[in-house]
Amino acid sequence: MQNIDELIEEAQKQGYKITPQRREIFKILVNNDSHPKAEDIYNILKDRMPDVSLATVYNTLNMLKELGMIDAIALFEDDSVRYDPTTKAHDHLYCLHCNRIVDVEKDQDDLGFTEKEISGFQIVKRQVTYYGYCPECRDILKTT
Amino acid sequence: MQNIDELIEEAQKQGYKITPQRREIFKILVNNDSHPKAEDIYNILKDRMPDVSLATVYNTLNMLKELGMIDAIALFEDDSVRYDPTTKAHDHLYCLHCNRIVDVEKDQDDLGFTEKEISGFQIVKRQVTYYGYCPECRDILKTT
DNA sequence: AATCTAATTTATAATAATTATAAATAAAGA
DNA sequence: TCTTTATTTATAATTATTATAAATTAGATT
Could you tell me which of A28, A81, B65, B107 has the fewest CB atoms within 10 Å of its CB? Predict the structure, then answer.
């Protein structure tokens, strides 16, 4: 999810209408590497469009998911879904203390990964998450 | 989570009391590779102990998680947590059609993985999930 | 074996994330 | 500008899980 104009063109081609709300959500997501949850996006959006509804955020996120423009990230220590506008294959680091998610490049071997077969499964996606403590939180936890 | 007697001993050592409900949940989980959700366990349990409460299942699962006897698996296409009594490092295959989870051995390189540092993160756990379609569902989807 | 105390169970309420609903609105094509 | 259909909004519903508080019980102590 790099270019808003291309994104809009693709969305329209698929029959989606482009509303000001959606346009604004696109802007929030483009080049966003904070892996926000729906509510994070809603909070930013509310400052710009005070009457916007949280349902619209979910609606738009689901639309972008269908278009393959964003990925959903599930975490076992966090009960809301986090969204990632970088759909190129990569792994994630999750800090169990501050809940931050950081991208990590995949091993070269896996970069070309698109579809593969394992144990008879037809694989469409691989998700790799490292759980641990980020540099800042390591320090904090060391002191306490 | 192989041996119930060892598990009980360890739980008691940590100050947990062993109730018939817990004993029965342990039995359900030992050598169980179906990656059940809390409600799956509750349904099996109810047949053996009709008055048991779902809260007890959650309570016991949380206890086992604290003891490191089971792992929780988060999936972005499934909204309940799945539990895995095999805590030895391994990956998962998840079928997007029937929601089955199948274990896959890890690459030899990763077998020794316990703790590692990436981008300054202190890693305590790695979770790898392949999303796709199991052999049975591939066939079903082919026909439709 | 009887007693005691803290942990556990139970039923139920609360919470939190997300989805569904339905009326009002607005995008975009004719 | 008109029309159709998707979208937005507010709100209710749903679902998984956690919290609460009274009743029960495991397991240590006597």
Answer: B107
Mark whether A68 and A126 lie in a shared domain.
no
For residue A69, what are its two tokens? Answer: 């423009």
Same domain, A8 and A60: yes
pLDDT in tens, A53-110: 999 999 999 999 999 999 999 898 888 899 999 999 899 999 999 999 999 986 555 5
Give me the CATH number covering residue B118: 3.30.1490.190
The residue range of the domain holding A61 is 4-74
**Computed from CA positions of residues A87, B90, B115, A36, in that sequence, does the dihedral angle turn out positive or negative?**
positive
The predicted model gives B71-90 an average pLDDT of 90
Q: Is the shortest CB-to-strand distance from A32 to strand D under 7 Å?
A: no
CA B31 / C1′ D13 distance in Å: 38
Q: What confidence tier does B111 reach under pLDDT thresholds 50, 70, 90?
A: very low
Number of H helices, E strands in chain B: 6, 6
Flag whether B82 is in a domain.
no
User: What's the CA gap between B18 and B95, in Å, rounded?
Assistant: 35
Interface test with A, best of B127, B131, B141 (most A CBs within 10 A): B127
